[in-house]
Design goal:
Shape: globular
Length: 179
């Protein structure tokens, strides 16, 4: 890979040619674009049409866990204080704008972040608590349902198809990466 870079800059065309040469199933180096680059044009089109997702249900899942933790005196299913702090921070960030809406690409990124947090290893070598993993799974499913609910507002059927394809590509990619 170093041979594909100049002294101070990356040479993407050399990179694409290199991988196209290694992968016989790739006829066109342009097809090697990343998932984000392939799907990215879809999200601005959704933004131009004002399509946002109502994330109230996502905030409610987080709020429910925090409330239950506080009512239990700081103990809930083995969830760690750092995990509760992360949920409090997430809730604060989601509600900071004063609206409970989010652009669809932000929702995709949030789902990806939930998945990353579920795989995260702390500096002490421990992974997330079992309860936190369950919460993250609930949040992921709730955010996905929120995304699908937002698509009901889209009048452009071609855009709906592209947004569903984007969702499918993200899900397949994550499944392939972390299976």
């Amino acid at each position: 890979a170093w041979s594909m870079m100049g002294r101070d800059k990356w040479n993407p065309s050399a990179f694409e040619k290199h991988w196209a040469g290694l992968r016989s199933d790739v006829a066109n180096p342009a097809s090697l674009l990343t998932l984000k680059r392939i799907t990215a044009p879809t999200f601005p089109r959704a933004r131009n049409q004002g399509i946002q997702a109502d994330i109230t249900s996502v905030v409610n899942v987080i709020d429910d866990v925090i409330t239950r933790f506080d009512r239990a005196g700081g103990g809930l299913g083995g969830i760690k204080p750092t995990e509760i702090s992360a949920l409090r921070e997430r809730k604060a960030n989601l509600t900071a704008s004063g609206t409970n809406t989010m652009w669809l690409d932000g929702l995709h990124d949030m789902v990806s972040d939930f998945k990353a947090k579920a795989r995260e290893i702390a500096p002490d070598g421990t992974g997330p608590s079992r309860f936190y993993n369950k919460v993250l799974g609930d949040l992921e499913r709730t955010a996905d349902t929120t995304y699908l609910r937002a698509l009901r507002k889209v009048k452009d059927k071609t855009l709906v198809k592209e947004l569903l394809t984007t969702r499918k590509l993200y899900r397949e990619t994550m499944s392939d990466l972390y299976a």
